[in-house]
UniProtKB/TrEMBL annotation:
Residue ranges constituting the KilA-N domain according to the UniProt record: 6-145
Pfam short name (any one): KilA-N
Name assigned to this protein: KilA-N domain-containing protein
Transmembrane segments: none
């Protein structure tokens, strides 16, 4: 279920757990404040997290995670926390950990919809500390969420790939009716169709299919099979536009310039389009 601020909420054994996409690194961050409610009442959730942060094992784990994933992590501050951890007087909040070490594994948000969010690696570790059983249910529901997202994205991609293929028939009909004299041989006709297909490829991708093959020897398929959702939408539009420009008798070199300009404008618009973003969610 999507919330207004683009967070996703999964239900884990009757407990709603928020998941927030990190706009900087693109990773999922799970609300450990929600997870902490499994161990205590709502008002004590922050204390549960602070108690977890007091443990030496927790500090060691967080420090190692940051060293592996964060080039800007402050090892000097980390060593100070590690030496103090486990003592009776040691207290550590998520905010202090983040501000002192430059950590990126935790995110602390204030306000009504705030809380402490952790990278999924860390969130699963915290869940294990709270309840090993709850951790297993959390992993199961999180994986179910990711499987659903991947399935929807695959479906949307295939629908738009099919749309581009349908529009390509409009494109080829325009070529047949306007660019191919009856006197041309089948091989010459094929060259004409291929030439116009490359016009679209260059306009959108900035390269021909042959150039793409040279640069990408391992992937199967062709240049359009690896296109993004936005690119597929633009390709469908370019096919219709090029068909109309062909019927108007505009030379290929002029059409290429127009199509390239249109492709850039449309891609920029679609990149910031909320409707397209919803297709990916």
């Amino acid at each position: 279920m999507k919330n207004k601020d683009s967070r996703t909420e999964i239900n884990v054994n009757g407990t709603g757990i928020s998941i927030m996409p990190n706009q900087v690194n693109g990773n999922d961050y799970i609300c450990i404040t929600d997870i902490a409610k499994q161990k205590s009442v709502d008002s004590d959730a922050n204390d549960v997290i602070k108690n977890w942060l007091r443990n030496r094992d927790t500090i060691e784990f967080l420090g190692l995670w940051e060293k592996l994933n964060n080039p800007n992590f402050n090892p000097v501050e980390f060593d100070g926390f590690r030496k103090e951890s486990g003592t009776n007087a040691f207290v550590l909040s998520p905010q202090r950990w983040i501000e002192s070490t430059g950590a990126i594994g935790l995110i602390s948000k204030a306000g009504r919809y705030g809380g402490t969010f952790a990278h999924k690696d860390i969130a699963f570790e915290f869940a294990s500390w709270v309840s090993p059983e709850f951790k297993l249910y959390l992993i199961k529901e999180y994986q179910r969420l990711k499987d659903d997202e991947n399935s929807r994205l695959s479906l949307d991609w295939n629908v738009n790939r099919t749309l581009a293929k349908i529009n390509y028939r409009i494109h080829t009909d325009a070529i047949k009716d306007n660019l191919i004299p009856e006197s041309l041989s089948k091989s010459q006709q094929g060259m004409t169709y291929a030439s116009e297909a490359e016009v679209l490829n260059v306009a959108l991708f900035g390269k021909t299919s042959k150039d793409w093959k040279i640069e990408n020897s391992k992937p199967k398929g062709n240049i359009r099979d690896t296109a993004t959702l936005e690119q597929l939408l633009v390709m469908a539009n370019l096919e219709s536009l090029n068909a109309e420009l062909i019927r108007q008798g505009i030379p290929q070199n002029q059409r290429l310039l127009q199509l390239h300009k249109i492709a850039r404008i449309q891609l920029q618009s679609l990149t910031n389009n909320t409707s397209v973003k919803k297709l990916k969610q």
